[in-house]
Amino acid sequence: RTTQEVEPLANYFVGRVKKDYRNGDLVLGVIGTSLTRSLNDEFRPRLASHAELVGTDWQYMWDNRAYSFIGSAALSSVAGDPQVITNRQRSNSRLYQRPGRAEGSDGFFRTRLDTTATALRGYGAYARVAKDAGDWRWESAVNLRNPGFETNDYSFLTKSDYIWNNVNIIRAYNTPTRYYRSLFAVAGGQAERNFEGDVTRNTDVHAFVETTTNNFWNVNAFFIRRIPGLIDDKLLRGGPAVRTEGSYFYSSNISTDSRKQWQLSSNPSYATTTLGGSSTNANVQLRVQPNTRTSISFGPAFSKSLGKQQYVAATPDATNAEFGGKRYVFADIQQKSLSLDTRFNLTFTPTMTLELYAQPLLASAHFTDFKEFDAPREKAMSSYGNDIGSITSETNADNRVVRYRIDPDGAGQANSFVIANPDFNLRSLRGSAVFRWEYRPGSTLYFVWTQQRADLAPVGDFDFARDRSALLGARPDNVFLVKATWWLAR
Question: pLDDT value at position 308?
Answer without folding.
Answer: 95
